[in-house]
Design goal:
This protein is an alpha/beta fold. It has 14 helices and 17 strands. The protein is globular. It binds pyridoxal-5'-phosphate.
Amino acid sequence: MQDWNNIRNQFPVLKTQVNGYALSYLDNGASSQMPESVITRLASYHQHEHANIHRGVHYLSQTATTTYEETRRLVADFLNAESLEQIIFTTGTTDSINLVAESWGSSFLSDGDEIILSEMEHHANIVPWQMIAQKTGANIKVIPLLDNGELDLDIYANLLNERTKMVAVVHVSNTLGTVNPVSEIIAMAKNVGARVLIDGAQATPHMAVNLQELGADFYTFSAHKMCGPTGFGVLYGNKSLLEAMPPYRGGGDMIDKVSFSGTTYNDLPHKFEAGTPPIASGVVFGEALRYLNKIGMDEIAQRESYLLKYAMKGFKSLQRLQLFGTSNNKTAVISFLLDDIHPTDAGTILDKYGVAVRTGHHCTQPIMERFGIPGTIRASLSFYNNEADIDALINGIKETQSFFN
Ligand code: PLP
């Protein structure tokens, strides 16, 4: 049994007062907060361990290399990946998807090939594919959304054919909270010989992910949504595919031998990691993973499911409110509109009560187009939120409604 009060107290920023109210931080989908142990790890790294990695024979360089590479092992364990070579460090989900779209796409896509995306994708899983489609002559097909915010898998089945080379879909929608049936989506893609990329940015912070069971070719996520630092992320890839793909960026560390008559490249994972990486962020992310592991991802999922139920009970007492994303299989993300009150206005009033929510299109404009709305108000919860945060949100919504009345 976890002491969730004690866990919440480990996050210094949650003690902030905003406009005289206790902060209710409900924008975890955008970026999560860091516990004390993760914050202090950054200082201790700089105080005792910092040097450039992979190159130096001196003590500090070797220490920093070992610590940084320890994060790779933690990530591989977290994902149940087969090997360390499959864990490529990037600057985040966006960078990871761009890497795959450009490197894999430039080698394996040609004129008339098809890429399947879904209507609920984050722009990070749309635009890189549009860019490579334009270069290669590939076409993009889109799995539409049902009214409850789930994907229409019947239409997906009809879109698949022998020209489908890539299916790139989100594991959990950042706007709707929908948890997609990714195992089924992957199995269907494999039936036609297509490759699959899963954008896991909103899954890894909230649930255990087992990549050996899932069988995706690529899986991506960002550290800053997992109590870790900004500017750091992961690309997991199928080893033989990664080996067959050309490097994405050139420079130091990604090479084996450089000469003007020709250059050869380093082994995986370094082939895709050119230049000095954000070493401190990598070390700090290792600490964040230790922190999450200590609580346990299943415990985190249960806690957040309880908080979602608690919130939905509160939402039932509200009127003139439309919810977007009502699947039974969803994470603790609540997207809504308050009749004709503009989301930005609602967000501004909620902020006066210390309630931090996200407003707008959440980098998912096709979802907004699908529902014919300008944006939503999104409350996205984390395990360190509590009932008081949710009560503050409900009260803030009532105040917003009475202000506009
Ligand atoms: N994909 C999803 C589902 C997201 O929620 C986000 C960020 O909100 C991204 C991709 C992009 O992540 P990053 O900005 O960390 O690269």
